[in-house]
UniProtKB/TrEMBL annotation:
<keyword id="KW-1003">Cell membrane</keyword>
<keyword id="KW-1278">Translocase</keyword>
<keyword id="KW-0472">Membrane</keyword>
<dbReference type="InterPro" id="IPR045865">
    <property type="entry name" value="ACT-like_dom_sf"/>
</dbReference>
<keyword id="KW-0547">Nucleotide-binding</keyword>
<feature type="region of interest" description="Disordered">
    <location>
        <begin position="323"/>
        <end position="363"/>
    </location>
</feature>
<keyword id="KW-0813">Transport</keyword>
<dbReference type="GO" id="GO:0016887">
    <property type="term" value="F:ATP hydrolysis activity"/>
</dbReference>
<keyword id="KW-0067">ATP-binding</keyword>
<dbReference type="InterPro" id="IPR018449">
    <property type="entry name" value="NIL_domain"/>
</dbReference>
<protein>
    <submittedName>
        <fullName>D-methionine transport system ATP-binding protein</fullName>
    </submittedName>
</protein>
<dbReference type="InterPro" id="IPR027417">
    <property type="entry name" value="P-loop_NTPase"/>
</dbReference>
<dbReference type="GO" id="GO:0006865">
    <property type="term" value="P:amino acid transport"/>
</dbReference>
<dbReference type="InterPro" id="IPR003593">
    <property type="entry name" value="AAA+_ATPase"/>
</dbReference>
<feature type="compositionally biased region" description="Basic and acidic residues">
    <location>
        <begin position="346"/>
        <end position="363"/>
    </location>
</feature>
<keyword id="KW-0029">Amino-acid transport</keyword>
<dbReference type="InterPro" id="IPR017871">
    <property type="entry name" value="ABC_transporter-like_CS"/>
</dbReference>
Length: 363
C-alpha cells in the first residue's frame, strides 16, 4: 500500500531561477495489488511524485507511507533499507553497460549483501520470469530496448519489492516492445501481488494496464479514481484525456457529447435521434474502447434538424439513463499528443548513489 498525505515538494531557488513547487499538497492512496497511473502534462510533477514515494526526494512537508512504514519518519539509513521494498524502472533503463543481463540483475543483490548462491538463484528466477533466461550473458548493447527494459524489471524485482514504480517505462519503446513490457508488468503484478505506480504521459498505457489513475496539474491532483468511475463521469478532465472527444469548430449541426458505458450504451441515443426523430446524425469524433475489462467511450455527434425536438429528445434520453449533453467548441481542452516528448530531465540525484561508482552508468 502506498499512502501520500498532503505531500509537498519545493525545489529552492537556484542560480537566478525562482523556487519551483513541483508537488503541491498531494494526498493519494494506492491499495495493495492495485495498478495505479499518474498522468499529466510535461512538468506537472509526475516524476517528482514517483521519487517522493521512495524518498529519492524528501518531501518538503507531508507524510509518505509504504507498506505500513512511514518513510518520512526514517533517517537516511532507515530510508535506504526501506527503499528495498520499492523497486523502480526508468525510461532509459539505467543498466550498467559493462555488466551482462545477469550481472545487472545481480547488482542490487550484491549491494544488499545477499549471499552468492541465493543471488545466482534469484537472478536465474528473475530472468526466467521476464523471458530472458537465454540472454543472461548478453550485455545491454546487444539487447533491444524492450529486452533492456525486461532486464531492468528483473533487476527491480530481484530484491522482492512490495511496490514497483515505473517512470515513463515505455516512453522510449516502439509500440510492439511497449505492448510486451505492459504484458509483462500485468503478469508480474498478478503473479507477485505487486502494487504498481506507473508514471506516464501516454494515455494508451493507462487504458491498457491501470485500475485507477490521477491527473496532475501544476503539482496538484485535479481528478482521479478507479478508471471505471472516471470514464463514466461526463465532465471528468481525466476522462477527456483518456478518451478524447473535443468539440472542434466547423460543423454544421448541433454538437452532442455521448458518454458511453455498459449501463449507458450509445445505441439508444443513435436510435432515438436518427431512427425515431429522423434527425441527421454524424459521428464527428471520439472512440469506444475496452478499459479495465469494460466498454467505455466518448462520442461527439453532429446533429442536424429541429432544435426544439433535439432538446426534448436529449432530456428524454437523460431521464432514461443515457449520458448525453450539448457540447460547444472549446468546452474541453484538446488531448495532449501521445507522441509529445517529455521535457529534458532536470538535474537529479541518481537512483542509487552507489551506482555512481560505476564509470559506465547510463542516465
Ligand atoms: N531537482 C530539481 N530541481 C529543480 N527543479 C526541479 C527538479 N526536479 C524537477 N523540477 C521541476 O519541478 C517541476 C516538475 O517536474 P517533473 O519532472 O516532476 O515533471 P514531470 O511531470 O515528470 O515532467 P516530464 O513529463 O517532462 O518528465 C518542473 O518544473 C521541473 O523543472
Amino acid at each position: 500500500m502506498i499512502e501520500l498525505s498532503d505531500v509537498r515538494k519545493v525545489f529552492p531557488a537556484r542560480r537566478g531561477a525562482a523556487e519551483v513547487v513541483a508537488v503541491d499538497g498531494v494526498t493519494l492512496s494506492v491499495a495493495d495489488g492495485e495498478f495505479a497511473g499518474v498522468v499529466g502534462r510535461s512538468g506537472s510533477g509526475k516524476s517528482t511524485l514517483a521519487r517522493l514515494v521512495n524518498l529519492l526526494e524528501r518531501p518538503t512537508s507531508g507524510r509518505v507511507t509504504v507498506g505500513g512504514r512511514v518513510l518520512t519518519d526514517l533517517d537516511d539509513d532507515g530510508v535506504r533499507e526501506a527503499r528495498r521494498t520499492v523497486g523502480m524502472i526508468f525510461q532509459h533503463f539505467n543498466l550498467l553497460d559493462s555488466r551482462t543481463a545477469a550481472g545487472n540483475v545481480e547488482h542490487p543483490l550484491e549491494l544488499a549483501g545477499v549471499g552468492r548462491v541465493e543471488r545466482r538463484r534469484r537472478v536465474a528466477d528473475m530472468l526466467d520470469l521476464v523471458g530472458l533466461a537465454d540472454r543472461h550473458a548478453s550485455r545491454p548493447a546487444q539487447l533491444s530496448g524492450g529486452q533492456k527494459q525486461r532486464v531492468a524489471i528483473a533487476r527491480a524485482l530481484a530484491a522482492r519489492p512490495e511496490v514497483l514504480l515505473c517512470d515513463e517505462a515505455t516512453s522510449a519503446l516502439d509500440p510492439s516492445s511497449t505492448a510486451g513490457v505492459l504484458d509483462l508488468l500485468r503478469r508480474v503484478r498478478a503473479e507477485l501481488g505487486l502494487t504498481v505506480l506507473l508514471i506516464t504521459h501516454e494515455m494508451a498505457v493507462v487504458r491498457a494496464v491501470c485500475d485507477s489513475a490521477v491527473l496532475l496539474e501544476s503539482g496538484r491532483v485535479v481528478d482521479g479514481g478507479p478508471l471505471t468511475d472516471v470514464l463514466a463521469r461526463p465532465h471528468s478532465p481525466l476522462a477527456a484525456q483518456l478518451l478524447p472527444a473535443p468539440a472542434l469548430a466547423g460543423h454544421d449541426g448541433d454538437l452532442v457529447r455521448v458518454t458511453v458505458t455498459e449501463a449507458a450504451p450509445e445505441g439508444r441515443v443513435l436510435r432515438t435521434l436518427a431512427g425515431e426523430l429522423g434527425l441527421d446524425v454524424e459521428v464527428v469524433g471520439g472512440s469506444v474502447e475496452t478499459v479495465a475489462g469494460r466498454r467505455f467511450g466518448r462520442l461527439l455527434l453532429s446533429v442536424t434538424g429541429d432544435d426544439g425536438r433535439l432538446d426534448a429528445a436529449l432530456q428524454r434520453l437523460r431521464d432514461g439513463g443515457s449520458l448525453v449533453e450539448r457540447a460547444v467548441p472549446g468546452d474541453e481542452p484538446p488531448p495532449w499528443r501521445d507522441e509529445e516528448e517529455p521535457a529534458p530531465e532536470p538535474v537529479r540525484e541518481p537512483y542509487e548513489p552507489r551506482f555512481l561508482d560505476a564509470p559506465d552508468v547510463q542516465r
